Every structure is written in C-alpha cells, then in structure tokens.
Fold this sequence. Notes:
Blueprint: E1 9-11, E2 14-18, H1 24-33, H2 35-38, H3 58-70, E3 75-81, E4 84-95, E5 101-108, H4 117-131, E6 137-142, H5 147-155, E7 159-170, E8 173-183, H6 191-197
Parallel strand pairs: 5-6
Antiparallel strand pairs: 1-2, 2-3, 3-4, 4-5, 6-8, 7-8
Amino acid sequence: MAPGWPARLTHGAITLRPLTNRDRSAWREVRERNADWLRHWEATVPPGPVTGARPSSYRALVRRLRTLARDGQAMPFAIEVEGRFVGQVTVNNIVHGSAQFGSIGYWIDQAVAGRGLMPQAVAMVIDHCFSAAGLHRIEICIRPENTNSLRVVEKLEMHEVGYAPRFLHIDGDWRDHRIYAVTVEDVPHGLLTRLSAG
C-alpha cells in the first residue's frame, strides 16, 4: 500500500476512514437526497469521445478509488459523524517524486452543513497528508460561485494562489475555478491545531 494509506482518523465526533462497498446504501441515500444541492459543484463528463468516463455503479467507483489508492494516487475518505455516513473527502492527483503534491475534493450532506464539520475534516486530511503520507503541498480548486466551499478554505486560512479559467467540466459546461494551496511549512503545528486556535 501507499504511504499513509489505508488510514482511520478521528477528532471529536468526526471519523474519516476508507470508503468501502459497505457504504453503498448510506452513500446512495445521502447522494439522492442531496442531488439538487450537489449538482452545481460536481464534475461531469463533457460530451464527445472521452476516456475515463464516470464509473457506472457505486461498486465500480469504489473499485476505481481502491486501485488509485493502492497505486498511491488517491486517498478516498468517507466522513462519519457520530457513526453516520455524511460525505467524502478525497485526496486526488497525488504526485510523488520532486512534487509531493495532491489536490482535495469534498462534499457533505446538506443536513449537517454549516456546523464546521467540513473544515475540520479537510484539516484532518491535510495534516495526515503532510505527516503520514509525506506530501508537501495540497491544493483545493473551487468554483467562484461556491460560497460554501470557499468558506471552508477561508476558515482554514488557505492562500489563494491562482485562477483557472474553464478548469473543469461541471454541470454541463467548462467552469472557472479559484485555486487555494497550503504547504507543510505554512502549518508547522498542523492545520487542525491552527483551525482550533482560530
């Protein structure tokens, strides 16, 4: 397995652990209930001849994420709050070698949004990336209209480092993104510690 994976992280009521096939029913229920809320922010496959299309089933999704994790290219965490599945935080596009870089994507059940859970979960994952996985830099890319997600990086005091026009295909079109990043030097005592102190 890759450095830092598999992992189980706990802080207060939040537990982060590998997404598994056993999460299928809970994952599907949360996704269906939040479909309208999530649709505006989730990547879509553009029309035309495309390779790497979205998985056709939940099992295929888990299988693909498991393969990427085994190869050290991803860390797909399920988020549990008091034992209940409420979302995901996934470290994607992990690059080793001279870069030691990864990007993070996340989503959460609207029923528990606004309680500060996602900033904590993201901070926990970034701290894990910097310690156990040995990464140096983490990036989060967010649509300018996604005020909820922008609030997460604001609470984490991540720096905006760029703007990417037509960066990802989302909700039927190519969408611009703001780019935020943090390095291990930025948070010598950990991002969760900085979040808690703030």
